[in-house]
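User: Structure tokens for this complex, please. No commentary.
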Amino acid sequence: MKSTEAVSDLSTILPVLQAIVGPERLSIAQADRAQHARDQSAHAEHLPDIIIWPKTTAEVSAILSCANEARLPVTAWGAGTSIEGNPIPVFGGLVLDFQQMNQILAVHETDFQVTVQPGMLYKDMNKALAQFGLFFAPDPGANASIGGMVANNAAGIRTVKYGATRDNVLALEVVLASGEALRTGARSVKQSAGYDLTHLFVGSEGTLGIVTEATLKLAPLPEHFSAVIAAFPTVEIAAEVVFAIIGSGLGPAALELLDPQAIAILNTEADFDLAVAPTLFMEFNGPSEASLAEELALVESICRENECQRFQSGVGREARNQLWRARHRFFETSLRCYPGQDYRLTDVAVPISRFPTLVAAANEIMTRLGCQGNIIGHAGDGNLHTAIFFPPNDAQARAHADQVNDYLVEQALALGGTCTGEHGVGLGKQKYMLAEHGPVALKLMRQLKATLDPNGILNPGKVIALNV
Amino acid sequence: MKSTEAVSDLSTILPVLQAIVGPERLSIAQADRAQHARDQSAHAEHLPDIIIWPKTTAEVSAILSCANEARLPVTAWGAGTSIEGNPIPVFGGLVLDFQQMNQILAVHETDFQVTVQPGMLYKDMNKALAQFGLFFAPDPGANASIGGMVANNAAGIRTVKYGATRDNVLALEVVLASGEALRTGARSVKQSAGYDLTHLFVGSEGTLGIVTEATLKLAPLPEHFSAVIAAFPTVEIAAEVVFAIIGSGLGPAALELLDPQAIAILNTEADFDLAVAPTLFMEFNGPSEASLAEELALVESICRENECQRFQSGVGREARNQLWRARHRFFETSLRCYPGQDYRLTDVAVPISRFPTLVAAANEIMTRLGCQGNIIGHAGDGNLHTAIFFPPNDAQARAHADQVNDYLVEQALALGGTCTGEHGVGLGKQKYMLAEHGPVALKLMRQLKATLDPNGILNPGKVIALNV
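Assistant:
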């Protein structure tokens, strides 16, 4: 951890920052700094020196302008729910916490759009949008901030149908390292007017600019839906069924894979009574009950042809909500099952035809190395997660967990996929960037960073900072 | 037009280029140069000095490396079907015609993906993909090249359901101005590994790099569909119906607006027998005939509630194909109706709730100024086109046509939209870039251009070149 001495070096800049936001929304208190030292990943914490809670774009502009002049690192902070170390202020400096810049600025109800500030929390926003019959579909599980979701291109169980955050951002307001603010995109769904700045910032993890406003595409809340739970003899067969369902042209609204270890945790910790077997959780939405029944019949026949051992369809609204709540809380639930243990999370994605191969590889290596943990995944879009737990002092188990991560990334790249489907690069995935993108693309990414942030003040140490 | 003298200045570079591709695939012949001097827009032609037909990425790399050293302008050429002057080589130099680099490299049938070379033509590709039951959905009407569609972020009548080209590109191979080749993206649908280089190149109109390979998302060919033709008393009412249909949550696969002038042209030139009235052409796809019937009933009730004068649904496959063929050929058909006349095309897009306002504005100004032409549009996504025809020597009519274009762009921007929904910036929309994006975003676009193409050799004079 950075020592508190560093703060004293900041004596020149502190009064300037205080003049911008006033004394109430700036802190150098140890408790506030400690709250912004780590995300939900296992990456080491690092104390920032100053926390500011901005309220307006003008304040963010003034702060960045001043930080840029002083070469002070600035890291944006949403809800702290990321899991790849994305907002850990590894070079200290200033954390901009957007908690107080969290308003819905406009609901464009008839355009299915919303304009929000970055500190708005995902679940709170969707609660507010429900009265309009609308929701923002990319669902990261955690109650992430919209700014964080945009920065990390977050995704989740609904992405199989509605796309990731990237696919649902129409326009942004961004403050550059220089303090200059700009608007990207438009509210029209079609846009061909010059370079796509919106998508340059989405997924850039606050290293190219800081998002101060986002206009998002919404979807109508489905009126007819049904959840399905189907259990299979092996994870490999379950993965083949995922592939068959997607390949059949069925459009699931969610299609999740959980291995027996994950199911066992749900049974003991979340009060489910599921067969302890590789299981698919699915949801289908339809324009009517009739079309939904047709879809479900096709799903059932695909499952039955693939040795499905238990098929429960027509799960009602309450059971469906319970299912997704449990799936969303799964990570926290599993943490409770391995108290005091350290962990490694994997997040790789492949083309759907390669998903069974990837799942088999994950199962094989975890079994072979005797890893404790589970395999789950947003299977419908080829996105696999593993969670491996180990005692902090067990060097061999830790090495095995790292080996699994390295191996699955290598497999995913060989299968035409990516080292990160939705968690972003943060700190942990930087070492794979050269292998995934090659030297020319990586060089270009670094040139873009140098162009947009010549003094390297924005979330330094992330995405493409590691010298590989 | 540039004189042929310029070619003699190229005496040093010509042998070098010839050594790369051989004498057969390089030309300085007047006839070849003339074929690459203009696209389908009304923008003035300009002769390039040299044409090369590359066959491999390695050739493109070698050519660009050499052109970059010599500061020779390089403009990529697909099918020449663009309509904003996008590939007109306004500074002469070298045109790279991708006609011979037009192979399907891989059909990833089970992933609904295809990897193609940039010279592949859109319609030829979809013909080849039909045997797999798949198609590439962004349909620009013209038989554009895939490279051109990626460069211009092309879209069309299917975009309302399937998105624009941008939404359907997963990965690219690109050659930079330096000659270095890189790969962007991955074949997994989820990707969060660093800066989104793919979308930086999509829509950059060959000014940041030249695409030599693209991996595209495909959609399954719909099995059940029905076309609908509905006529209304005014274009404003027709536009309100568009808004009502989209707002109801119905998911049309196409939703086109044509004004009475456009319908009259179809009746006389394309052998239709339609009511000469503002008309919506629609298509709906469904998982079954039953669900389709439900959708159509809802569409009919919305139309009837809005003074629909003639409602034809359940139009069969042959009539549907005839309808879309006629819509696709509409631009060429209207050109035939105004022989020898000059023309201006408008391409603006707005949020769907603002579409009726935009249509009313277009109708009002064209009527007021007595413009000859028509209003059509990919109404379902708020994208409006007008075509205005005038005798080349009628200065007032030309000024009126320009006035309509300026006015509709101004209206679209005020309504939260864009100066170009799908034709790109090319030459003609550069003058609106400052108004649409503001000075900071425009400066950033120029910085990106300078970073990626420091010598300004790639399609110079386009997108952000105009000093506004």
